[in-house]
Each structure stands twice: as C-alpha cells, then as structure tokens.
Amino acid sequence: MRRSLPDRRTEMGATCRFAAGGFTLVEVLVAIAIIGILIGLLIPAVQAARESSRRAQCANRLVQLALAAQNYHSANGSFPPGVDRSRSPKSSVFVFLLPYLEQAALYEQWQSSATSDYQAVAATVLPELICPCDRIPQNPLVNPVSLTKYGLTSYGGNGGTRSFDPSSPDLMADGIFFEVGPGSRPVPNQRSVGIEDITDGISQTLLFGERSHYDPNYDSFAAQGWQQTMGEYGYWTGSSGNLSLGDVTLSSFAPINYRLPFSYSSRAAADPPCNSSSDFVYYADLRLCAFGSRHSGGANFAMADGSVHFLGDGTSLDVLQALSTRAGGEPVSLP
C-alpha cells in the first residue's frame, strides 16, 4: 500500500502558527536592548529641549525687565536707582519697576507707610522675577532676625565693578544701579543714571543679569554660622537693613558663575587664607557679587538697549568688567 506523503503546506502552516505565537529569549533581549538604546538617546534630547525652553523663558523675563526700565526712563528721565536710601522703607530698583511690570497695585501698596503693607509686599513672590532654572530653597524666605517674609529674585541690576559689600571701602558706583540719596554709598547724594550717562554705548553696557542661588561650598560655611546660605540672598524689595544693595544688584568683581572653590572642611588650602569668619569676608564678597545661573555654560544678560545675550562662563573678567561700566571708555564687543 502506498504511503501518503505529509502535506508540506499543512506542516509549514503549523510551524508558522507556532512561531507567531511567541518570541524567543534572544528576540526579547534584542528588543529590550533596542528600547534601552532609544531611551538613552531620547532622555538627553528631552532634557536639552527642556533646558532650551527654560533658558528662553529666562531670556524673555530679562527682556521684560529691560523694557520696564526703559519705560521708567521715558517717564522719569533716568533709570531707577538700585536703592533709594532717602525713602522709608528703602525702595529698590524692582520696587520702582512694579508699575511697568503690570504690578501698579502692588506698588501703591508699597507706598503705604503701614508696616503690614510693607510686610505683605515684601513677602510677595513675583514669577516674572524668577528664572525657571534657579534653585531657591525657600521662597518667600523668613528673615531669621526680623521674622519678616521676603520674596526672592533670580535677577540683579548691573552695579558695575563692585556691588558688595555696600559698606566696603571698595564699593563702586560705575554701573547702572547703585544707591542714591543723602545716605548713598560710596558717595553721598548720588543720582540715578540717564542714557546720556552711558557713554560706552547702550548696546555695550549691561542692564540686568542672572543670580544663581546654588553653591554647596558656600553653604558649608553658612552651616558654621559664618554667613547666610546662598538661598537667603536676593530679596527683590531689598532688605530693611544696610545690605539692601547686595540683594538687588550684581557686578563684575567675580567671573560669571563664580562659586566658592573650596568647602569649610578644605579651607586650609585657600589662598588668600580663610581661617576665620573675617577672612571669609573676601570670598563672600566675591560670591555675592557674581552673576551666574543654573543654565549650562553661562548666564543671560539684558543690555541697556533692551537686547538679551547669553554670555558664557569663559567670558574674560576684563570683557565682563568693560561691559559692566557705563563710562569706562574700554573698547569692547560682545563675545
């Protein structure tokens, strides 16, 4: 009797159905590896896109600050002071700009002499004064001495070549924002800056820049009671004490994104020495003057003409100082 051969079509169909019913271990591992590679490629791209978006938001906020300052100038014939010491409470550049940042009601509240009004305004957190990349641990912050709440800002007006400490004999007023009034420093009766005073050119003179609240090494000294933490500086109204100028201005005393190069535990290697809280003042002044940000590689700056530029960490101190002075006469171009 002749044996029938197996139907090859039936056999192949069964094989195909079996193969289609699952994956081999090798196939699963290959798929996982491909997915891992894709995720590894995607995460940096997403992070870069987010950083680009945050940097653009920050730049836009600096544009708005520059426009507000220009509108203030049009209305008053000069830019606002960094701090007006003739008023009580002392008013900062950001207070004066409130009506030009769509915060006229808040400005009127500040003008009130009632203590409750002062505290309410000082505690206000203004999103337009905060960079989305800035890490501010607590905002508003409770002042440990006065127990007053203060809203913080990620920006500072250009104070020139030295903006901190306001009581330092080396304080300068060669930028755009500094103290005015009978008690102004470093010279009494300083007046606000007008565009005609910016002989270096408004496109080559800084108006505002970023402040970074991140510096673990600096904070290690604060933990020893030598200073406040970095997160405790930058009241947008300025403080009620004598350090108000340091809250609202920055300068070119230090390079962009200068951070303390040593911690409290490694301070023995510092040059100049940093063996005491009085020695630390030199480093505190450097850090508290410094423009900087949490953006990668530099910080955003608004110029006096309203344009915004990103200056890299590698910008030389000579160039930064030339950009920070209003009438230094230095030949300089943006990096």
Notes on the protein architecture:
The structure is a single chain. The protein has one domain. The chain is 36% helix and 10% strand. It is built from 9 helices and 10 strands. The strands form 3 sheets. It has a 5-stranded mixed beta sheet with strand order 8-5-7-9-10. It has a 3-stranded mixed beta sheet with strand order 2-1-6. The chain has a two-stranded antiparallel sheet with strand order 3-4.
Q: How large is the share of residues in beta strands? A: 5-15%
Tally of separate helices? 9
- Quick one: overall form? globular
| Overall residue-averaged pLDDT value | 89
In quaternary terms, these chains amount to single chain
The radius of gyration computed from the alpha-carbon positions, rounded to a whole number of angstroms, is 28 Å
How do the SSEs run, as a string of H and E? HHEEHHHEEEEEHHEHEEH
Low-confidence stretches: 8-19
Tell me the count of domains.
1
Helix content: 25-40%
- Please tally the β strands and state the result: 10
Q: What structural class should be given to the helix and strand makeup?
A: alpha+beta
List the helices and strands and how they pair.
Elements: H1 8-20, H2 25-76, E1 83-84, E2 91-92, H3 93-97, H4 104-111, H5 115-122, E3 141-142, E4 149-150, E5 155-158, E6 179-180, E7 206-210, H6 216-222, H7 244-248, E8 249-250, H8 277-289, E9 298-303, E10 308-312, H9 317-324
Parallel strand pairs: 1-6, 5-8
Antiparallel strand pairs: 1-2, 3-4, 5-7, 7-9, 9-10
